[in-house]
Specification:
Elements lengths: L2 H11 L9 H23 L5 H4 L3 H23 L14 H22 L11 H22 L6 H20 L8 H21 L1 H4 L8
Helix pairs in contact: 2-4, 2-6, 2-7, 4-5, 4-7, 5-8, 6-7, 6-8, 7-8
Amino acid sequence: MKTDALIDALARDAGPVRVLPPAVRRVWAWLAIALSFAAAMVWAIGPRPDLAERMVEARFLFEQGAALATAIAAALAALALTVPDAARFWRWLPVIPAGAWLGTLGLGCLRDWAQMGAEGLRLTPDPQCFAYIALIGSLPMMALVLMLRKGAPLRPSWTLALAALAAAAIGNFALRLFHMQDAALMVLVWQAGAVALIAGIAGLCGRHVLRWPGVPA
């Protein structure tokens, strides 16, 4: 098709284009949905009986803050990647908060080992973590996918992996408010591990969930 004919066809057939709000604005709308659902789930399941005590512990607050920051950064990155000219650095935005989250859990493992020896690093099965994180992250994930579909996800695998990371991190944030498990190694393996697994699985499904014809993952 010649350029003049293409311009005429676009002028005749193309509908109005609605410009997406900035990713920063959209991420706060998503966060309101995600935290509202998480709060409802915590209320339905029942907060942990020692929550008031944990809320004044620096270690607990830092871990929770890092998990929430990871969720926000991952959601912001996913939304930013639906803009065609998005810079590559958006992919790595969650690295700093996620690194801080994993780092404080690693330090917690060392602290538990120093205080309790081998008993402090005992690892027992806790399959409920994955189920709760997936359940609480389900609505935030669906909401974020709907928001992503309004843009142009040119890197669907990256985009969906970041979206899943955001939703799962929200799920983990809520989990700590009712699940009586604070041993750093248990949190690192069963909770942070579940978040990473969910993000990895989502990344493999990116091209199928966020279809964008002719664009590689």
